[in-house]
């Protein structure tokens, strides 16, 4: 009979009479696999949304899923991991060191998710297609003493005995969070203090009995307080703030210990039936005067002055107005905003034009990551200057000139002098290379160019200047002239030539060559100077100019 692997560890179960000559090897392998089932292994998870960990049948190859403690690495996204086969009932301790949640499943039953960086003990029931994965330590009851280096509790914690944190003279922080962000109660072991932090408070239904001094940084009293003796806050040279609130929000009287001042804040006022006798200076930050004030001398204000209505600053010839309704400081024609000790910078409007005028030493510097000059209603660009980037000039909100890494880029063409004709605009400049190719007239053919074969061109507007070196052009048959393919098609002039030049056959005959470019042609025609057929198997050195389309 054949071996079977129906057990939970997928060991080789030999039938009676099987394994003749191999029984010991099979048994040793089974013992090794049992040892692995109590051991530690590491397995990488693929970067995919699903993965399968399979306990292999009777082999150590890919046997990591058989281990009791399995550390999973790799990954790259949240992943659902199937534990196979679905008939295996087994306990795992799985450590998830990927950066994503791993959800473990075996069948259609419940799954268990292990968050990134967490470790859980799970078990499968091996029930086939309906198999369930269990979180084994759910509702764990620890009857004895449990020691932890750090304990983070995310849910309810029920303790029916004494909780001791640390030992005498060696304690640890204990923190209890509330429902409000930043609110918690902390036993601070380093300070030997119980602290209520943030919005955390203390509600006491009965009395508080303090045998020593109650040192309270802040006292908030919502009801009446009766003091039968003197109330002293602080000691000489070391005081504390004392605040008395009124019935109006934001109104209070404050003894400000840092300023040694009694402050009436918000709507708090001072109602005095008698006189005020000030031996020193009366420094009033805000003065609200309902009637007329007649000052025979200079008014010096050391604090903030708040003016709640329009303010007019009257000049000899023109005024500056703060218009409350428009939230605007208005400089009328002929008034100046000047900056600098020597009035170095002026901003003004003279009735006809607006000016920003630098009359002092140094430069007028306008700084910004992007400086954008626009028209009067901010609908069109005039110029845009970008920090460590381009400077662009516009015409009617259309970009025309822009600096780039290579130099200057022009949109459209360049006109010279007073010329305004679009046809006369220089709108192209190009330098380049091409590989010359030839055909011949006279019935022959070009076999190829076996040596140097380089073409260069410079195109300015529609005028293209070409230089060619070909060594050598091998032909067969009769050759009466050569056709050289052009980098650009010749201009359409409705008949006639559009360019030409001279060259030399430098190898076979040393003859001069005439070059002609006809209108609307993609080839230049070459033949021997002074007539006659063109030389076969030639070395060419050519230069010519022609007009392109």
Task: Walk me through what this model shows.
The protein has one helix at 23-37; strands at residues 40-45, 50-54, 69-74, 79-84, 91-96, 102-105, 112-114, 119-124, 133-135, 174-177, 184-188, 193-197, 242-245, 252-256, 261-265, 311-314, 319-323, 328-331, 336-339, 345-349, 354-358, 370-374, 381-386, 391-395, 398-404, 407-410, 429-434, 438-441, 445-449, 453-460, 463-476, 481-485, 497-505, 512-518, 523-528, 538-547. It is mostly beta strands. Among the domains are: 23-135, no CATH class; 308-365, no CATH class; 367-419; 429-547, Sandwich (Immunoglobulin-like), CATH 2.60.40. The longest helix is centred in the N-terminal third of the chain and has 15 residues, at 23-37. The model has no long low-confidence stretch (mean pLDDT 87).
Note the main attributes of this structure.
1 helix; single chain; mainly beta; 549 residues; ten-stranded antiparallel sheet
